[in-house]
Design a protein that fits this description.
Helices cover 14% and strands 30% of the residues. By secondary structure, the protein is of the alpha+beta class. A hairpin with a 2-residue loop joins strand 3 and strand 4.
Length: 164
């Protein structure tokens, strides 16, 4: 049986804590993209008019068409940074190399609108390490922030990664 390490916190984690990535920038959001997204999400039902009917949307407190909260301006082809290096997994995964998705929590700010340009930045913001049923376990928290061209928060997502 492999020896239990004293910690799963790596030097890379210590170095990267609260270091925000360079922003990934979307192209301008088009009203057509919003309409197509709403149709796909609400299919086979008709999407709410707030997402496609300009006259109706102008009569709401939003004063115009907005995108559904789950709209992703990065779903279209854009330049993406290379994926992070994965832990080496030769043979059976050892202590600290088994990884699970611990879920995510989204918080929404201002809605996305036609013409908006969204920027995404991310950072490892925290971790908790504790002894679990399966041995030493670390819960790492990555925050992803989307802002619009006015630097207003559109969405914040906290994702939890579990490694044991």
């Amino acid at each position: 049986m492999p020896k239990q390490p004293a910690t799963l916190v790596t030097q890379e984690m210590l170095d990267q804590r609260d270091v925000w990535s360079d922003p990934l920038v979307s192209r301008p959001i088009s009203q057509n993209e919003i309409i197509k997204w709403a149709i796909a999400v609400y299919w086979p039902e008709k999407p709410p008019p707030l997402y496609w009917d300009e006259k109706y949307a102008e009569s709401t407190h939003f004063k115009g068409v907005i995108a559904p909260q789950d709209f992703n301006p990065f779903a279209w082809p854009v330049d993406r940074p290379p994926p992070p290096k994965r832990l080496e997994r030769a043979g059976v995964a050892g202590v600290g190399q088994r990884v699970m998705n611990g879920g995510q929590t989204d918080t929404f700010g201002v809605p996305m609108r036609p013409g908006d340009v969204t920027s995404e930045s991310r950072a490892l913001v925290n971790w908790e390490e504790r002894e679990g049923r399966l041995g030493l376990t670390i819960f790492s928290y990555t925050e992803i922030r989307w802002t619009n061209q006015h630097d207003e928060l559109v969405k914040s997502r906290t994702s939890v990664g579990i490694r044991y």
